[in-house]
Amino acid sequence: MWTRRNKPLGFYRVAKGLARRFPPLRWLHPGMRVKRYAALAGLGVGLMAYGLARFLPPPPPEPWALGLVLLGLALLVGGVRSMNRSMLSAFTEPEAVPERVYVRRRLEQGPKVVAFGGGTGLSRVLRGLKEHTANTTAIVAVTDDGGSTGRLRLAFGLPAVGDLVDCLAALSDHPALPKLLHYRFQEGEFKGHTFGNLFLLTLNQEARDFAQAILEANAILQLRGQVFPATPEAVRLKARFRDGSEVVGEVAIREKRGRIQEVFLEPEPQRVMEEALRAIRQADLLVLGPGSLYTSVIPSFLPKPLLEAMAKARAPLVYVVNLMTEPGETDGYTAYDHYKAIAYHLGRRPEVVLVHTAPIPEEVQRRYAAEGRFPVAFDPRPFAADGVRVIAGDFREEGPLAQHDPEKVVRALVALV
């Protein structure tokens, strides 16, 4: 019996059987478009060997031997090149591979940075870091209980996924992936949910373990780094205020609008991911923030194993102070107040504090003042008294918003390593 390509069907059966029994022989499977180029390269090696043999004494070299060697070399190079292009075309554009390999290898030599936090602040820093290193680890707070994340937490009992999605998108090596992960459904049963949130939910439902789901997400998305939750358990944030009252839940904490004394995780998590602890031990630099002080940055390191690992870590610790205060959370806080809250909850002083000190345009300040947000005041004297190094400068991104510029911040951070 013959196939439409006029090859015996038995040939295909034998090839498939050998490939199943000996996986390396899968390259011999029909249709792989590899055998022909391997044969061409092999012919080139044979011609080169035959031609070179004519140069060996005795007898004297034949006049045509050099041409045979050059022809064999050309066939070898052409065969190997075509074989590589054929294999790479199954995954990507072959022309883009050299640049991608160069970038990846250069970034793999970058510093090992572990960044803590959540929300927009951390994801912006990650976007800057991925241009300097492929060794970034994001440890993300999972206590958010608002919006799509809150609905999924209530329905499925999983940790908050929204900030994790932001960080996964920020470290993505594919330009289209952030837009896909952030796509928000506008109608139907999924209205208000983002694709990224549902993606992590699906992985969790399949794995039946949130830690395993996150590992799978890291592998599938092929990041320039890695993203882990502060804990794979579904915990909530609890705040104790200066007046002695206690409130549970990030949304409720913001709405309370009081002076916060300290925050906790409820219940106390029993698990953290070993991959996160290993990254802290091996880090060249630990970075906190920027982000909402009590509802993003501090919850990202509150699990006890993380606190213990950071206390023992030899890497310098840097805290990036917010540009603006947060209504209902850090009203009236100075840069030093932010720093003291971090040191209190962490049990370790940051060695370096990065503070934006350049003027913020009046029109930007007016827009934020309408929301009850104001520039974070900075006084260098209390930092000097504590022996803390302050890196002050212009770290704002040009535009209508008061946001950190990823490149400016990361240049200052990388200079510390």
TrEMBL record:
The chain crosses the membrane at residues 37-57, 63-80. It is found in: Cytoplasm. SUPFAM superfamilies: CofD-like. Keywords: Cytoplasm, Membrane, Transmembrane, Transmembrane helix. Pfam families: CofD (PF01933). Belongs to the gluconeogenesis factor family. Required for morphogenesis under gluconeogenic growth conditions. PANTHER family: GLUCONEOGENESIS FACTOR-RELATED, UNCHARACTERIZED PROTEIN YVCK-RELATED. This is Putative gluconeogenesis factor. The gene is yvcK.
